[in-house]
Amino acid sequence: MTRSLPPASGKQRRRSPAQSGRGRFDLRRVLGTSGRPPSTRRKLRQPSAQGLPPLLPETTRWRLSATSASLRSHSKASSRTRRRPNGPTLRPKPPATEQTWFRLLLVWLVLVAGAVLLILNLFRIQVLQGTELKERAQAQQIVPIRPFAPRRPIVDAQGNVLAIDKPVYDLYAHPKLFKQPSQEIADALAPLISMPAAQILQKFSEGESGLKITTNLPEDLSRRITFLQMDGLELIQHPQRLYPQQELFAEVVGYVNDALQGQSGVEYSQQTILQTSTPEVDMMRAGDGSVLPSNLPEELLRQDGLRLQLTVDSRLQRIARAALRDQMKKYHAKRGTVIVMDVQDGALKALASEPTYDPNLYYQATPESMRNWALTDLYEPGSTFKPINVAIALEEGTVKATDVFQDEGQIFVSGWPIQNFDYDQAGPRGAQTVSEIVQYSSNVGMVHIVRTMKSSVYYSWLEKLGLGKPTGIDLPFEGVGQIKTREQFEADPIEATTAAFGQGFSLTPIQLTQLHSAIANGGRLVTPHVVEGLYDSNGELRWQSKLPTAKRLFSPKNTQDVLAMMEKVVAEGTGKPAQIPGYRVAGKTGTAQKASPNGGYIPGARITSFVSIFPEDKPRYTVLVVFDEPQGADAFGSTVAAPVAKTVMEALISIGQIPPSQPIESSSETQTEP
Amino acid sequence: MNLRSLIPFLDPSVKEWSLEARMLRWLTFLWIAIGLAMLFSASYAIADRDFNDGLYYVERQLLWMIAGMVGFSLLVNSPLRYVLGIADWGMLFCLGLIFLTLVPGLGTTVNGASRWLSLGPLPILQPSELIKPFLVLQAARIFGQWYRLSPVVRLSWIGIFALLLVGILLQPNLSTTALCGMLLWLIALASGLPLTYLGGTAIAGVMVATLSISLRSYQRQRIMSFLNPWADASGNGFQLIQSLLAVGSGGLFGTGFGMSQQKLFYLPIHYTDFIFAVFAEEFGLVGCVLFLLLLVGYATLGLRVAMKARTPVHQLVAIGVTVLLIGQSLLNIGVATGALPTTGLPLPFFSYGGSSMIASLLSAALLIRVARESGAEIVAFPNRKALNPQ
Asked: How big is the A-B interface in CB pairs under 8 Å?
């Protein structure tokens, strides 16, 4: 190797042209490129003249002499080739020839071609396929999420919470992650979740991950499980609907199922309002699964704090329900309901029906107890409908309040005997004013009053009252009353005859309350409702549903007359048990035979009811009390239902702070006298 | 030596440099600046997650850059012949390191390839990166003086070059092998070697590459996935698909600096070998074209320097550095955009990595030094008077 290397001295220049290899390559190049041997030679000689450091094997010598030698030789070469005296610096002419220029250009072209191809490829990717690739990228980067929004709370008129979301926890076990023996974990859990350790162990053995042990653990228990600090246990939080008043408002508020979907009551009918609707949000997600907070919508974590306020009053409801229960127990009634309605706007102040259920434990309730029958079930109103008939006749002008009718005690219409409830004891009552007919609840008298109208006119009035149509209450599953068709009704006089004392058609207790409210408020048919509206945390109304405008049925003068008659019922007639000292109460009892689903009437089964309007001089509330199948010979509207109505009205007096109409001492005396 | 000349921005001699030298210097700095900005954007999220320090990689890259800048300043102010004089030793030293990485226990294996070497107190080194400037110098020396060399010397060095390629290939590091092979081949092409030699070598190289691919299943799978990445989108094609999604998301104008979504843990190794995908996503086609224009401008300046160079060796150093920096960049971009098989090759001045940063800075310094020595500048040869009594 050393032998063949040129020494770093002037000697190499003399040797290099003679190198055999070089000559052969030169020839090739000449052939290939019509070359220029001189230029080639010059180019090849130049490097040697430049005196580059020799290659590795010669280093020992080079270290001492190479630099000086090369510089020396370089200056010599430069002075010779350029025929110029060498200056203090080196400014050699570039030695490149066309040949090397071409080769250098070729390398450059390779690079430029590469760049151009890459630009074309980038154009393809970023512009031609850009949209598609971006979509694909976003498919992995964007996750649509629906932010958790708690269901709005429901409160009563005073703001007492009736329904609210609370977090509860489901307990899952992942036995493959257990650090302690299964037995130890089961023993620790057993007292907390009130489940035998053996049963927990049994569940642990069902798999190695994702085993549901128990559900709906309250927050404090979940915290105690967390404090156990045992691996392999997982608590998953989810909201649960809590009804703090338990069964008190079950028929109004209703309940939600496991999926937090309303199933009855306001929870069902106001589902869209209660379920705060948060729109689906596209969230940017990083590759490791974390969500980027950059484009969170502003309203994501902001809750509006709105709550759904109802018109019902917990205090009144509690009293009404207690009275209802007592009376039901006393008379062994199957069912009972109390409805308190604000006569001016149809707002329900109380709606209690028995039996009922605890919405927190809705899954344990019987279908019968979950039935809000005041709303869903139809009944024949009986005598409680008589004041309505009187109002119709007065409004139609066929009867005046002062008119007198003969009460034979018993008449026959189309071959059917019609008699007063007390015909067997009292016999014919003789000449009776309209007021007296109402006061003594005379069936025969009512038939005479109604028959002053043509049945077609009377039928039109029943239609106008809304019989056979829903009231439009904002609670779900409202029953629709039944009424004969116009043809049937007009074909047989018995239809109008039975309707005169409230039989032969059916309606819901709610609808009857609505009709009596029309008597109370001067003749307007208001829409019953329980939803007041959405209120914010400052107590300001933010939303209210629009109720239909009340339809006018009767003139205030006529309703005034009917109210006076109904006051007489309480003051002197069947409604005496509802008397409240110092207050003027209008009312009407009702004791009707119970219609059988198979047609006709169930023997011995009756529905007793009492409807009252209070206070009579400035009506504010309608109270309807209905008992289904109370037992006992003394079970009448006056004995069973009226006392409950009285209790409710007494509660209304204290809650509504209603002043008495006359001095209490004197009024009680005058009323007890007759 | 003036200490100021160690700091590239304060080097007092710059005013006297040739136009090409000055332009190359500024283009290099611009390139580094863009690269650092991109590294900041690309690495912040992952550094924050892994080290709780978003600037972890940028700080280290800056330190490496400062170290590289010192070397850069020394090189642009040192006569090229000094560096050429130690090129062979430097290259053999790095070659030794490359073979050390193959020794089990010494090499640090990452992603199935042992390319890194921990040298005592020194952080992890990548000898296959550091060898690149020496390889350019040595190849320039050999091919520039080809006809002056005896066949034995030629064959010896060809053998050493081949050994180098084999060493890198055994790591295994197909991409660096390919880059070094192409580098050698293009330097040889520029040197004026006969086309028959070059053609033969090219065929041999392709055959070796084919053999390597067919022997190593992981390389073969990569090749396959490059041809149709969507066939195995969650496996072999994953890296390339994530890269394509990033590049494609950029569209015409990009998402804006720092706004890449794919860098958020979708695209693996996005702060090293695939940093261009982040760049393409953030700056779009417009940014990519501008960057490629910068590369073409750099290459054109390199070509001018080569054409003006005083000697064939200088010519080859200039064109070799150009091929090294620009060629490597183009290969990297080609990989990131799916035009080439997925291999690990850093993008000079962009990708995080000390070895790459230093090697690239030294290479750029070599090119600028050639430009200085061949331009109109009065280049100082410090020892000339002492050594040249004439």
From this structure: 236
